[in-house]
Every structure is written in C-alpha cells, then in structure tokens.
Design brief:
This protein is α/β, with parallel strands linked by helices. It folds into two domains: 33-132 and 220-330, TIM Barrel; 137-215. The protein has 18 helices and ten strands. Strands 1, 4, 5, 6, 7 and 10 form a six-stranded parallel beta sheet that branches. Helix 3 (45-48) links the parallel strand 2 and strand 3. The protein is globular and about 60 Å long. It binds zinc ion. Zinc ion is lined by residues 100-101, 239, 243, 279.
C-alpha cells in the first residue's frame, strides 16, 4: 500500500514539475545537477530487431526527449558534466545521454540523430565483441528464442550443459510456466557456471542454424565505428571486456575485466577512457572491489543503473542514471532533470526509486 501511494505521489509530482512553471522554480532552487540517461539501442530493425523492447528506444521519441530537456539543461558528455560539477562554477544543470555496450545502431541510427541535434553522448564499450568478433551469451540467448520455443531451448541447453545445479534450476523454471524469458535469463545470468553457460548457449544457437560471428557483425559496432563516433565528439567509456556480472567474480578477475577493457580501448583508439559503466549496474551486480577496480584502472567516474540525478556531492563512482526505452516515462525524466526530485530530497523525501 505504501509503495502504491508512493508511486501515485511520484507520478503526480513528476507531471506538475514537468508540465507547469513549478519546474522552472525547482530548476532554479535545487543544486546544479547532472542527470544521466541510460539506454542501449535506437530501434533499427536491421541491427537490433530481435532484442527485447526494454533495450531500445525509437529515434523519434529520443529526439523529442532530448529537445525537451535541452530547454532547461545543457546536453553534455558524462566526462564534461562531471568536470563542470567538480569545478563548482555556477551554470545550467546538465543532461548526459549514455548508451551501453556499443551497438551498431549507435553509429547507424543514433549518430545522425545526434549530429542533427548538435548533441553529444557517452557510449560505453564492451570490448570483446570488437576485438574477438564474439557477443556475450545474453544476445545469443535472445536470438535462440527468436528461433525456437523456451521448452526446446532448455532441452537443447540440457543436452550440452554439464552444470548439474543449473540444469535442475532450468527444468524448474520451465515447470513454473510464466515470465519464462526473464526467469531463464536470471538463472543463466546469476546462477549458472559462466563457462559452461557460454559454451552451452552458443552450442544451442549453432544447433538452431545461428551464426555467432554474423550476430556480432550485425549487432555490435567495430573499431572503425568506434573511431568514427569518437571523431564527432562522442565520448567513449569503458564497460569491461566480457560484460560479466562483476560481483560474481573474484577481486582479481574484476581488475582484469575492467583494466583490460580500458587497455583494449587505448590500443585501438589511442586515448585513455575517463568514464566507466558497471555491467548491468544494479547494486547487487557490483561491489566495493568493482569500485576499486574502476578507480585503479584509471577511470575518473562510474555509472550505475540506480535511478536519480547527481550533484557535486554525489560519489563519482556511484553515479545514478535514468533508464530510457520505448516505455520510458518522459515526465519522470523531465522532473528529475528540472530538479523536482532533488528539491524534495533536500527535505529528506526521496520519491525517485
Ligand atoms: Zn551493458
């Protein structure tokens, strides 16, 4: 009940701040802030047609959102936004658009849109697809489900996997019947032995006639794409080598995933990345060792996927972001960017999560 009331209060407040002069008032009174938007793909059937819709935003919707936000805020990269916050200078609040992983559509569909608007962005690169031509298991999993049923996927997976515990869990999920994609993905993401999972999902995809190398070429950018984006002023940040859940790795493996991703970018692009994004980004996906790994690798800031905005007082290695996808509530985003939620936080009221 309490949660439901909070959701109603949040929605009403967001609409007041987004659509009335109250927003101009909170924008002036709340501290200067950097609101960071987090997406993955701009909808582009050729390159990301099979991805779930919570990973995509339609180009027209994104354009309208950015045009609206720039009325109150400067559009910046994360690195530039953090620099301005740290400087302590007065000035307009800021919005940074970020896109995770490094998808092909970021060059094909997002870049023309940004150039048209004269807007920057920060794109976080998972480097294995660019270096090895291999996507991580989750995209192969989604493509398998385009080609067959959940039941058949599990049957085929069980024929390849030697991870007995995961086999039992997957059989259990299947018996449950509902929200199968989410539940299967959760078991594979957090509970399966990673090497056995990667090998088994790939074997299923190949048994269904899928081509992992073709998938990578279609879905992810290559280093030429990355260079072209960097040349237009888009910031490229780190997102590890393989996009593992960092909290499931030892401190040493976290360091190599984070540090080697940054080194791969330096080798291919010739510059040191400043900004970093924890893969998946929820509080249980990263830990103190991940923060230390990001800092020690040389990054200057790191983003999570927890909702909120950022001020000069926010820990640079625990930056908050607002997810954007096809169903994103633009009033909530506008309210955060106009300082509506931050102004309330000043009184100890947090409606944002
Ligand atoms: Zn990611």
């Amino acid at each position: 009940m309490k949660h439901r009331l909070k959701l109603i209060a949040r929605s009403v407040w967001a609409r007041l701040v987004a659509h009335t002069p109250l927003g101009a008032w909170t924008n002036r009174r709340a501290p200067r802030r950097l609101t960071i938007l987090a997406g993955h793909c701009v909808t582009c059937d050729v390159h990301n047609g099979f991805l779930p819709k919570d990973m995509k935003i339609e180009g027209g919707k994104l354009r309208a959102l950015l045009e609206r936000l720039r009325r109150d805020c400067d559009l910046v990269t994360v690195a530039e936004g953090m620099r301005r916050l740290a400087s302590g200078e007065a000035g307009r609040s800021m919005v940074a658009l970020t896109m995770d992983d490094g998808y092909k559509d970021n060059r094909v569909a997002l870049l023309p849109l940004l150039q048209d608007l004269g807007a920057p962005a920060t794109i976080y690169l998972e480097t294995a697809p660019l270096d090895d031509g291999r996507v991580n298991w989750s995209h192969e999993f989604f493509l398998c489900l385009e080609k067959t049923t959940h039941e058949d996927f599990v049957t085929r997976y069980l024929s390849h996997s030697r991870d007995a515990e995961t086999r039992a869990k997957l059989a259990n999920v299947l018996a449950g019947g509902e929200r199968l994609t989410y539940l299967l993905k959760r078991v594979l993401k957090y509970e399966a032995d990673p090497e056995d999972r990667d090998r088994s999902v790939r074997a299923v995809l190949e048994s269904l006639g899928g081509d992992p190398a073709e998938l990578c070429r279609t879905l992810y950018m290559d280093w030429d794409d990355a260079r072209a984006l960097a040349e237009t002023g888009i910031e490229l940040g780190g997102h590890t080598v393989h996009h593992h859940v960092l909290s499931t790795l030892s401190p040493e493996r976290q360091r190599s995933e984070v540090g080697e991703g940054r080194a791969a970018m330096k080798a291919a692009l010739g510059f040191d990345a400043v900004s970093f994004a924890y893969p998946f980004g929820r509080a249980w996906d990263w830990n103190e060792h991940s923060v230390a790994a990001a800092r020690d690798a040389g990054f200057e800031n790191a983003v999570t996927t927890h909702a909120g905005t950022n001020t000069a007082r926010t820990d640079p290695f625990r930056l908050k972001r607002l997810m954007i996808d096809e169903d994103a509530d633009t009033a909530l985003i506008a309210c955060e960017a106009r300082g509506g939620f931050e102004w309330l936080r000043g009184f100890g009221v947090d409606l944002s999560e």
